[in-house]
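Sample entry as discussed:
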Amino acid sequence: MAPIQSEKHIWFSEVEVRELISTFLLAQGLNQPQVDSMANMLTAAQRDGSLSHGLQRLPGTLDTMAHPRFNKQADPQVQNITPVLTRVDAHHGFSCLAAERGMSSLISSARDFGVGLLAVNNGFHSTALWPLVEQAANSGVAAMSMNPTHNWVVPSGGRSALLGTNPIAFAWPRPNSRPYVFDFATSAAARADIAMARNKQQQIPDDWGLDRNGQATTDPAEVLAGSMLPFGAHKGSAISTMIELLAGPMIGDRSSYQSKQFDADADAAPCHGELFIAFSPELTGGPDALHEAEAIFNGFTDQGARLPGNRRYQARDTSARMGIPVSVALMNRIRSLIP
């Protein structure tokens, strides 16, 4: 399909977006398996309206791939440590390829034993977490994923950055509907959203972060140079700390503070661990578990409440009909960076 263009946006097919990402990454010398994995993830985010996690991420991959420890030829291999624990070392490539390669073992463990764990180590952060937990839910298991980032976030009541933005994603399979899926940072906003506001010269809410002097600010550039705040005050701090522990020391990987040290001012994406946990509702809850869960989801729709994840599905359907919108400015920037 020929791209449709307006003054500010171009609309592409899903295939065309994937081809653009692949062309960009191959031109930087990234090996084909990592290119394919990154193209899958970034295309999914752009298609589903998660713009800060889609093509917006592509220029930043140059800084990440320039990190002295980044491995453009990484070929992660799956290790089945126990019947329920799988480990995949990303070998300092993008984390998404290692996670993709471990998914079948994770799902099989959950189906056979009720629970499965997948530990991904030494991976540079790629993009949103939800595509892979959604994949697990489409296979009939519930799944969650989490990881530390860099220590950009001040704990509630604190004075200096200690925690990461520490995203967490969860997906639940539904018998006659798309999975229930959520994915959010435990900071008041995702760092990519703050960066996008800076690029658009937009202000942000004053409870998203602090400037370098520890004062609240609506200037996204000041927050990026200063520190971010957790969502929900002490509650967000607690969940973020849990993620630090489970996806850091528990799987033998870096905390957000250690990830920032590893970066050594290279301005790369965080290099960290990622933990996936999958469950079989039918093994743990019985054959009616999924149908019983539908009463909860119906409780949302019966009162007109928005079920988390539905907006993403609506954007996906719109993209299938109309094409995937990409800003002309971003498209020109990406094309200018292709050698």
Observations:
- The chain has a mean pLDDT of 95.
- The radius of gyration is 20 Å.
